[in-house]
Amino acid sequence: MRDWVERGWIGVFGLLVLALSGCGESAWNDPYPAADAEANVYYSSFAERPKHLDPARSYSSDEYAFLAQIYEPPLQYHFLLRPYRLVPLSAAEVPEPRYFDAAGHPLPEDAPVAAIDHSDYLIRIQPGIRFQPHPAFARADDGSYRYHALSPGDLKGINRLADFEATGTRELTAEDFAHQIKRLAAPWSHSPIAGLMREHIRGFGELADQLAGLESAGALERVAALRQASLSGVEVLDSRTLRIRLEGKYPQFQYWLAMPFFAPMPWEADVFYAQPGLAERNITLDWYPVGTGPYMLSENDPNRRMVLERNPNFHGESYPSEGMPENRDSGILNDAGRPIPFIDRAIYSLEKEDIPRWTKFLQGYYDASGISSDAFDQAVQIDASGEPILTEVMRERGISLLTSVEPSIFYMGFNMLDPVIGGDSERARLLRRAISIAVDFEEFISIFANGRGLVAQSPLPPGIFGHREGEAGINPFVYEWRNGRPERRSLDEAQVLMEQAGYPNGVDRETGRALSLNYEAVATGPDDRARLNWIRKQFAKLGIELVIRSTDYNRFQEKIRNGTGQVFMWGWNADYPDPENFLFLLYGPNGKVEHQGENASNYANPEFDRLFDAMKYMEDGPERQALIDQLVEIARRDAPWIWGFHPKSFSLHHRWLLNAHPNQMANNTLKYRRLDPEQRQAARRDWNPPILWPLWAAGGVLVLLVLPAWWMVRRRERSTAL
To answer: Which parts of the chain span the membrane according to its record (predicted)?
Structure first.
């Protein structure tokens, strides 16, 4: 009995010690090691494990969040300037294309497109760039590569890349870029842009066909064949100069030079990872990238966390000194000219659910966060002018809100091949314009997107060359400019258009029947039902009966491919910030039904197509702007789409995270961010105070339980003594 009582007192004492320890420097619920409390470490999360970290294969934003910090293609997007502007990254300057005729004679920049046989891009590489430390570069005393001929015995005890004792590096060369472009052509790379590059890079298709017979060969054999193969459109002129030759003229190629697809890849990495026994250990390029960027992947545990650390071999870069006029007073240029990156390490934890991610952000354990629909009202409110502002709770914590319009568009499309809603007759055109007025996308954004959208006036979102702001940028068929802002035309005007089209109050004057249209939808849950009911009500304003035909996504795509639908919702996210990347969605030769292109509405207008052919090859400037204005005017008049909206990105960051600035095209922005770890740690302590009353209550209960037993033991001891 006495031993039990002593253990009870020890338990009470332990609880008191535990309670007092909570008054230390760190919060009880801190998920990170105490040693990292004030470390220069950025904390964030990811929701989906990256499938590919090989730059030849990767093509998703989840993967680019890591890849763009590691790899350095020739170009990048300027952090602050808008419209989006390309600037050098690993290249010494942005290459200017040079044009030649079939005989190889140089042509002027304004040469007719038909006269241009090929375009040359001369890429000069910056000197002094070195790859991150990696076993693929490690050499033995005799100068041979230490890990390029691994035997099964050499792999004993090797389970991850860090288990290799030695690493090495070397300087970046033009050959590394040439090797990567050949990798894009290799069928076993399964590059998503191989088909597009076949159309543009000279000799790309021939190389792809030549390598096709090696798909069943061993990995080392394929790498050896790739190294020996030549690509006529890619020539290494010297160690730091590469020439890429394109068929004809393709000015949008420069944007591809800012994507990881064109990041340099050393042949040593290909050989290293091709060795037997490594893939079984997940030691592959898809798992362990090899780059020259400011960070390298030091830990890859996609079921738990991903860790980026400073690349000790990084060649260096400076924070930008140029910005937009509104950047002058925002503080975003305070670090102008300073060397980057600022952050030593970035830890990304897997969070599949929104609530834990949001909770940890509010506790200060994540430095930045998106806003889920469930948390939106807690974080954001809409002011009287319709602008989003932070709630008082968020402002009290010093949290900042960043918003930016994404280079995307969601639109409601009309199938222009349909005999009722499509075609170029004035009747169908007036009907489409009436519906465009009636479908209130301002309301849609408010109800279904938490206000996170900007009503589209054309296919071109802000930040893309050709987009016009203010009164000059509104769609006059749907909006009027009043009191300094666009206002949707009245439903009365839409009813007048319906009458002019031969559908007074929604009744076909020729048949006497109510107009009925089919809406193709992908519906899976109750949220979809509410959205579809809303769409049905918009058409009902004009007396149109909208028949919702819900199906799964595969069947929906089949209907769009076959052109059997009438009305549908569709979207597009730009690969690169060029007006061609949006206006081609209305280009006749890209029609979905006839040409299997991305023109899902199958719109075709000869004048639009003619102007588009001229515009897509032009450099940005007044002449190109004039053509874009004409293209937009034609599309607005014909109304093959209800222009819908451009989604807005909302993100939050704590006051200790500096230089957080939205850039929807650049993915390599971690290097610009800076932290104040001391301020973060102080906030964590303030926001996560230990809740001690349960411990004190438990201690009190233990005291009440132990005290009577202790009293009985003491009484028995005294009785025995007497």
So the answer is: 691-713
